[in-house]
Amino acid sequence: MESITFRIQREADVYVALSAGRRLANELQFSETDRTRIEICILELAHNLIRHAGGGEITLTQVHRDPAQIGLAVESRDTGPGIPDVELALRDGYSTIHSLGAGLPGVRRLMDDFYIDSTPGVGTTVRAVKWRTSHR
To answer: Which of 93, 89, 81 is nearest to 116 (CA)?
Structure first.
């Protein structure tokens, strides 16, 4: 499967990406719990694009660790202001917009693999992967 990329500029775009992620997770036979985790990841990352970067892209990709293990990667990319202190941004409760500060730390906890790269003035890339735990 090739990647599917969604431009995220406004709230409606978030739900288009979310719907596609739900459909893909279902096709890949993720458990209901893991489908929910993937949906939360897409919601958090897409909302972050709107709130912090003025928009960006979400890409969904079926990935393989080996022939038997299938995963779903959610990648968020923007050319926004970047995150000056990534470690601080990954702490529970930290927020620059007076929110709960649960977004990035929550995504990291919900998904199996988590990677973030951010350069102030250049932008941010976040990639999170959920691996399917068993064949159905």
So the answer is: 89
Q: In Å, how far are 14, 53, 107, 116, 128 from 113, measured between CA atoms?
A: 22, 23, 10, 10, 5
At 19-28, the pLDDT tens digits run 999 999 999 9
What phi, psi does 63 have (nearest 5°)?
Answer: -125, 160
CA 52 to CA 120: how far, in whole Å? 12
From the CB of residue 99, how many other CB atoms can be counted at a distance below 10 Å?
12
126 burial type by CB count under 10 A (0-12 exposed, 13-18 middle, 19+ buried): buried
From the number of C-beta atoms within 10 Å of its C-beta (0-12, 13-18, 19+), residue 55 rates as: middle
* Full-model pTM: 0.89
Contact 76/49 with Cβ under 8 angstroms?
yes
